[in-house]
Amino acid sequence: MRKRWGTIVVALTLLVSTVAAPAYAVTKRDIQQKKQQIQNVQQKQSSIESKLEQSQQEIARLKAEQEKVNAEIKKLDLAVEETSANIRAKQQNIEETKQQIVALRKEIEEVTARIEQRNELLKERARSLQESGGVVSYLDVLLGAKSFSDFIDRMSAVATIFEADRQIIKEQEADKTLKEAKEKQLNDKLVSLQEQLNELQKLKQTLNEQIAAKEKLMAQLKEEQKHEEEKQLALEEEKELLEKQEAAMKNQLQEMIRRQKEQEEARKRALSSRGSSESSEGSLPPVSDGAFMRPANGPITSTFGPRWGEFHYGVDIGKRGSSVPVVAAADGYVYRSYYSSSYGNVIFIMHYVNGQVYTTVYAHLESRLVGEGQNVSKGQMIGYMGNTGRSFGAHLHFELHRGPWNASKSNAVDPMQYVPF
Fold it and tell me: Hey, what CATH class is 300-417 in?
């Protein structure tokens, strides 16, 4: 903000310098220089417009980038949402698998119990065979038949026992295989689910890291956009001031030829009225050489310096006639013309002399003949001496400031050092 105000102050100073007229006669060279100044300002405007266009393009690019990042963040948010749902599903699957493991462990315990029972039965059968002589016992059983019918019955019984033994062995092997298969199946499923869960959790962490990076990028883009918008605002302000400066320069260029003619006419009037001015205070003061001329005819009744316990920041010119004209002390620009409770009817004129800004003040006027925004020439009539505001007797209070006027009057200088009274 401080930098922006600095730019505005500098531009306003340039603006004042362009509208204030030079303190010398206008020449063709002056006109040419003024045209060159206008061209320079136009070139600056063109440069500002180019920078504005670049700034607008940069803002548009930043907005497009933000939209793109927003879309990516939304996409990542959806991916996180989906991954979180998958994580919950995997965790549910793991819990269900763990419950299945508990149930299968009970089943495995039952299978193990059956295997143990069959082991005991086989062991008992083996002991019986060993005690009876193994296979021979089967022959004894068959040979001990008392009839053919008994032999057939005994053969059927032996075959049944033999088949039962074979079935027990098959069931024993099948139960062992089932136990091993189910244990492996459960372990593999649990490991697989845990691996999938770990992968999902890593994916979610990666997605969250990407979202954080995108949000950081978004914040950076917004900051860049804010900076670019502030830059654009400063450029727009500078452009507006350059436009006003260009308008003021063109106005000055249009006035320069007319002012040159007015200056010449004022000099002629001064020469023609020089003799009569010695006897009449109501005539225009003669246009003198130098940067400034006296603003009105009449005696100096109060000078610059301490007076009545206060400081008097100007000189007073006494009124010695019914209607005493007041003229511009130098070529300049009327930037204030109004009624003040202290100054009464007052006119402020800004001058630009040899690269220096000056301000002249004409107070306690009876009437004002020029308004704000007017260009005036040295010696041009701007009002009549009066007694308005805080004034004790009709007179002209004239101030000269080396620089802009301010309320503390810190720029006030002694007019006697600049004006040939």
Answer: mainly beta
